[in-house]
Amino acid sequence: MAEWDAEPGTAVPHERIAVCVPTNHMAAEMAYTLKLHGIDSVEIRSEGPTGSAGVHIGTMFRFKGLEYQRMIIAGVTDGLVPREEVSRLRDHDPTRHQQEMRRARSLLFVAATRARDSVDIFWHSRPSPFLDSWCVERERGGG
């Protein structure tokens, strides 16, 4: 985010930037980290943003219907997107497994499509299986 502010004429108001994460705990950690760096943040709850001044932070469940100039989706890691519990359903409840996989993929899609100008997706360790085909395509020089 510092480079967005640093480029002359390209600064994006923090209210037009959102950080989306898979869990409430990660959202709280992100708000704390931004505060340590002097950046205000606004929590997105089920009824919408709790204010207007600052970077908007929330889970994937909270972004439907919202739009931001810049979107950061962090924690798109295998075991978080989809959650580990969903993967465990594969063997003992395949129908529910498929439903939950579609739901998790849809949440990621909705989050990614909230960006007007740019979206950045981050993960640690192993990326979400939803990104596997995209990562392979990027390595081949496609989309």
Using DSSP, what is the number of strands?
6
Stretches with pLDDT under 50, minimum 5 residues: 136-140
Question: Could you say what the CATH architecture is?
Answer: 3-Layer(aba) Sandwich
Give the name of the CATH superfamily. Answer: P-loop containing nucleotide triphosphate hydrolases
CATH topology: Rossmann fold
Helix-and-strand structural type: alpha/beta
Radius of gyration: 16 Å
Q: H/E series, N to C?
A: HEHEEEEHHEH
Provide the domain count: 1
Describe what this molecule looks like in 3D.
The model is unreliable at 136-140 (pLDDT under 50). A hairpin with a 2-residue loop joins strand 2 (41-45) and strand 3. The protein has one domain: P-loop containing nucleotide triphosphate hydrolases (Rossmann fold), CATH 3.40.50.300. The protein has a 6-stranded mixed beta sheet, with helices on one face. The longest helix is centred in the C-terminal third of the chain and has 19 residues, at 94-112. By secondary structure, it is an alpha/beta fold. The chain has 5 helices and 6 strands; from the N terminus they run αβαββββααβα.
